[in-house]
Design brief:
Chain lengths: 169, 82
C-alpha cells in the first residue's frame, strides 16, 4: 500500500467520474446504465481501496473495475438505448452557440452509431487508449488482456472507425 | 533499413501511432509517408478518429447523478460501518 499518496474515494471520483461514465456509456449504449456503472464502480472502489497495493497505475485499476461493472450491467439488462440528443457532452458545456451545438449533437450521434458497431472489447480498448489516454500497458491491465491483444483491438477499432467516419476527418 | 512497402507500413501502424516504435522503424515509416499519399491519408485519418472522439465523444456525468453519488460516497467515507 502507498502510505505517501493514498487517494481518497472522493478525490478519485472527481478525477475519474466522467471517464468511467464515458466508458460505461460506450459499452452499454444507455445513459441510465452508465450512471449505474459509475455508482457501482465507486462503491467497489471504496470497499477495496485499502487493498489497492499501489503496484500499478491507479487509472488501470479503476477502469478495470469500471469495465467489469459495465459488462455485468450489460448482461443484466438490455433495453432500448437512450436517445443521443438527451446526452450532455463535454463539448456542449457553456456553449451558447446554438448552431454549433446542433452540429455537435449531430456529430455526437454519428460517433455513437459508429462506435456501437464495434464489439465491446474493441470499444473499451479504443475508449481507454485513444479517448481517455491510458497507455497500452494500462489498457491491457484494465481489460485483463495481453498487450498484443490490445494492440490488435486498437488497430481494428481505429480502422473500422476511420472508414465509417471518413467524411468527418 | 530498406524502403517499406505500404503493407509493411500498415503492419507498423499501431506502434507508429502510439510512438512505441524503434527509431529505425520510425525513420523508415516517415520515409515511406513522405513519398506515399495513400498511407499519409490513412495515418492522418487514424489520428483524426481519436481527436474527433476526444473533442466530441467524451461524456460528462450529469450534475444530478454526480451530486447523488458524491453524497453517497461522502456519507460512507465518514461512516465506514454503513
Ligand atoms: Zn504507402
Amino acid at each position: 500500500m502507498t502510505a505517501a499518496a493514498s487517494p481518497t474515494v472522493t478525490s478519485l471520483f472527481e478525477e475519474f467520474a466522467d471517464g468511467i461514465y464515458t466508458l460505461g456509456y460506450r459499452l452499454t449504449g444507455d445513459r441510465q446504465l452508465a450512471e449505474d456503472v459509475v455508482q457501482e464502480t465507486f462503491i467497489k472502489v471504496m470497499r477495496s481501496l485499502s487493498s489497492y497495493r499501489g503496484d500499478g497505475p491507479i487509472a488501470a485499476w479503476l477502469y478495470r473495475i469500471g469495465y467489469r461493472e459495465a459488462i455485468a450491467v450489460t448482461r443484466k439488462r438490455k433495453d432500448e438505448p437512450t436517445e443521443p440528443d438527451t446526452m450532455v457532452y463535454l463539448a456542449d458545456r457553456s456553449d451558447d452557440d446554438v448552431e454549433r451545438e446542433i452540429v455537435s449533437r449531430e456529430l455526437a450521434a454519428v460517433l455513437d452509431a459508429a462506435i456501437s458497431s464495434l464489439t465491446p472489447p474493441l470499444r473499451a480498448a479504443f475508449v481507454l487508449r485513444d479517448v481517455e489516454g491510458l497507455s497500452t500497458v494500462e489498457v491491457a491491465a484494465a481489460l485483463d488482456a495481453s498487450e498484443s491483444a490490445v494492440k490488435m483491438r486498437l488497430a481494428r477499432a481505429r480502422e473500422a472507425l476511420r472508414v465509417q467516419l471518413k467524411e468527418y476527418l | 533499413m530498406t524502403d517499406l512497402t505500404c503493407d509493411e507500413l500498415d503492419a507498423l501502424l499501431a506502434e507508429f501511432l502510439d510512438g512505441t516504435i524503434t527509431d529505425d522503424q520510425r525513420d523508415a515509416a516517415l520515409a515511406h509517408l513522405a513519398t506515399c499519399d495513400a498511407c499519409t491519408i490513412v495515418v492522418t485519418e487514424m489520428r483524426g478518429v481519436g481527436a474527433l472522439f476526444r473533442q466530441h465523444g467524451r461524456l460528462r456525468l450529469p450534475d444530478a447523478a454526480r451530486a447523488r453519488i458524491r453524497a453517497q460516497l461522502e456519507a460512507a467515507e465518514q461512516d465506514p460501518t454503513s
